[in-house]
């Protein structure tokens, strides 16, 4: 490295004594002479007092070789403490690390083990050492951390473990350990926990204990720091040490939130509670008895009050956006908890009613805010957070604030469409261009772009009601959701480039889309024939169901696709998409889904057979039973419209197997609802196809109709005969 032509003038000039020492240092060649000159330098100025030019002159005079010898020397000059040479070496290193161009030099990075050892030295060792060594070591760590790539080297080099030990042992300068750890964990949380999990566990236990016990201003400082020290993966509820941490955090937060606090004290507590709620919902609240519900109600109540204050203000939010976003998370968990139906709920019915009231008031404030400023702030991520909360509320409480919801609906549709279209534009760009576009937008490095997903459950409810359904249709929601469904199917179909979480989100989004389309198909049948998007949707459903069933699993999605495809098919029977060659595989897949649900089981006590669900259907029946019944009805309605469908039923063996099943089992074991839909199926098959009618008669159709009370089928068979 070369010295700069002249010292920097950005700081005060060095004093004359220091200048003379530098001249001596530059001229001296022996170790003892350099050692003496360096002692004089350290007496004249600290590393933090030196300007860049002076630091570089010191480095040019001694380089790395001399401090290396000092740091690794095992002896000291006569009359000097044994730590003197190492202390001087650390002082030099701290001086060099103040220059970022030197801080990531290999000769500095290979000293990380020495720095780690110095900061984690036990109190007994410290009593023998120069106390300034720890100060210099921390200055070196902070210099490395500020240099390009420095954080990665510190994490890989085990610095996190040493800093944890420094704090746990209260080593010299231990207060600085949390500051350095905060930066390292914020930058590389996953790698930090992977590298130093044991030490971070011990530290988190210690910090949570202190947060619970502290009664002064330090409690609020810990509340600000603790979110950084929580593990990136949700492991606290799965381990005994994690549960201990959560118990301490709960009790500490309870003490804070029950006190009269100024804003700067309350905000960190709300943010900490929100972060835990985002990861663990309400399962992180390890408080026994009635206090558990009281704590949760207090947390959500405070969040609702904060939202109302922030959003109903004449100048909404200002600097309160981060806290408001945290409160959104708490309110969303409150909504989920109120919607739960458990044998031993955390909240009493009275607590739920009280929470629902304050949540409704908070959501009213959110709708007011979106109505006032949403149109102008489409790119503001806080608007997306507001829409997400509103979607969670409307999914459970569609009938509350009905007038306000209807007034806001045009904006919500505009917002969904805008984000989806911008996301589509971004995805269509080459990868390099797409990344640049993202970084230049107000969204930051990650494009959220999916307000539709947050509002889909609410749209399932809204599409079932006349007035909001009219708005959804007039604003073009069917076409928007058709494009969205197609995109989600493409995402879901990716094999290797998709995380399990992303695939689940895509699957749930498609299920909700099907719910909206089913409502439209039932309540607005004329619309299905008028809107071209339904033809496009049907083509996609026809193609996707066979693929889905072939891969197995995904029973709820298969039920949605099958039933929706059948419902639309009966309304679009003449479309080219339903010609036999194009749709044969779809109807074969639909028959597979509908025909495999029930089996006969022998009762060992009575020796009789009874009907039961097969295992795969039994696990999902609560979610798919209505779809199955609706699917059989829709399939029956398609039979007279598609002449080739009845022969396909015969070919599949479905008719034969279901007749055999009814002949084998006890009639008392078959639900009336099952009998009703099967009667409609048999009747349509008998009327539309001679071969089907003959098979029904051969299998004792008349006797079965009489046995199961299928009067319509019995009359149909007698008339035909």
Give a description of the structure.
- It is a single chain.
- The chain is mainly α and 721 residues long.
- Helices cover 73% and strands 1% of the residues.
- The chain has 39 helices and two strands.
- A two-stranded antiparallel sheet has the order 1-2.
- β1 and β2 form a beta hairpin.
- α19 runs parallel beside α21 and α32 crosses α34.
- It is elongated.
- The termini are far apart.
- The N terminus is likely disordered.
- It comes from Staurois parvus.
- This is Neurochondrin.
- Belongs to the neurochondrin family.
- It holds the Pfam family Neurochondrin.
- InterPro entries: Neurochondrin.
Quick take:
This is Neurochondrin. With 721 residues, the protein is mainly alpha-helical.
Q: Keyphrases for this structure?
A:
disordered N terminus, 721 residues, elongated, 39 helices, mainly alpha
